[in-house]
Amino acid sequence: MSSTASTTEVVRPARTVRGSVRLPGDKSISHRYAMLAGLAHGTSTFANFSTGADPHSSLACMEALGAKVVKQADGTIVVTGVGGTFRQPAGELDCGNSGSTMRMLAGLVAPHPGTYTFVGDASLTKRPMQRIKGPLEQMGARVQLTDGHAPMTVHGGPLRGIGFSAPIASAQVKTAVLFAGLGAEGTTTLHEAVRTRDHSEHALRAFGAELERGRDSISIRGGQQLQAVQATVPGDLSSAAFFLCATLLFPDAQLVLDDMGMNPSRSALLDVLVSMGLKLQVLNLEEKHGELIGTVQANGAPVLKGAEITGDLPALIIDELPVLAAIGPYTRDGVTIRNAKELRVKESDRIALVVKNLRVMGAEVEEFEDGLHVPGGQALHGGVVDSADDHRIAMAFSVAALRATGETAIQGAEAAAISFPEFFTLLHSLAQE
Ligand code: S3P
Known about the structure:
Layout (H helix, E strand, L loop, with lengths): L7 E4 L4 E7 L4 H13 L3 E5 L5 H12 L3 E4 L5 E4 L12 E2 L4 H11 L4 E6 L10 H9 L3 E5 L2 E8 L6 E3 L5 H12 L4 E5 L7 H8 L4 E3 L3 E5 L8 E3 L4 H12 L5 E8 L6 H8 L3 E10 L2 E9 L7 E3 L3 H4 L4 H6 L8 E3 L12 H11 L5 E3 L2 E4 L9 E3 L4 H11 L6 E4 L11 H8 E2 L1
Parallel strand pairs: 2-15, 3-14, 6-7, 10-11, 18-19, 22-23
Antiparallel strand pairs: 1-23, 2-24, 3-5, 4-5, 7-9, 8-9, 11-13, 12-13, 15-17, 16-17, 19-21, 20-21
Helix pairs in contact: 1-2, 1-3, 1-6, 2-3, 3-5, 4-5, 7-12
This protein binds shikimate-3-phosphate.
């Protein structure tokens, strides 16, 4: 996001964390619902749609492609789809800060005749797009990049199904391929070595498409039409991660999160938090449109242990790694993250920024090309944290600030609005001084 109107948020040390909240809808699911509803036949309604700027970038792009979007006063989003045929957009498709919008939508439009130019902000313009150009061109689309990045132009037209083995664990790339496969001739099969988040699979099925799951593959037949759905978006577990980590920091902390997304492909985070000492209960589990939803009750850790996050695990909790690293100094055993090179090509270089900001707050930390090591048993002091306009960095260090001595100033705090505009208001109400 642009840094023209940078705001600083001050976070003071807290005594504990207490409260009960219902979080806005999951960002990943909201993107997929916005896109598929925009293509579908009929009018879809989404309660508890994400309030983050990113899924609203997806909605704006769908409007540019001919869908009708109405935002109701209670936040419900109503999307009337184009019924299978996109309109040629009058201008560029502006994805803002959202890599999900750019990568997944490129796949969705690729089988549709027309020329689609995608642009984004300064951060998105630095992010790698070759990873979607490869499979989409194998299917028959032409994708022009600017030195491997956006601005990106997709020349859409008839595509053929392919078999594709994902070289990197990325749900965005998987989604681009499945969305393109939906409009291709024949069947598209995607193999993934690491099973990334499967919201696209559930969303496609919710909109009426058939998919087949193999042991490590997923196939979609082309030429299927989508029908509108009425859905409630479950609370965002990646947003919850900040408050769950805050809860970990205080032995007497208590937090209740209602209507949370509990999709097993996202819940490795909960296993990590429990292994670090979080007391956790999930109640009232139910399934809607393939997504699990439940109430989470969390209590602080009597002993805050550490974590070793290596192998396949980083890919499953990629968005939660900054906050897990940021609380690393307060753990008994430290936090080690390896095999997480992807963190360097997120909204910022999240390895470099976590290291920089931990040092600003007085921590010792070791940086690796693919991760970092934060020794445990360290005290932090307040400081001036640079979010570099990255939402998850701004929020991660606000959590670290709760156990620091003195105040912490989070520069570029408004970046939180990319995924979680209510973050600071909720943090201030949950953290007891
Ligand atoms: C997302 C996948 C992840 C994640 C991003 C959302 C998704 O990206 O970091 O915030 O909704 O599919 P990658 O697919 O690039 O790992």
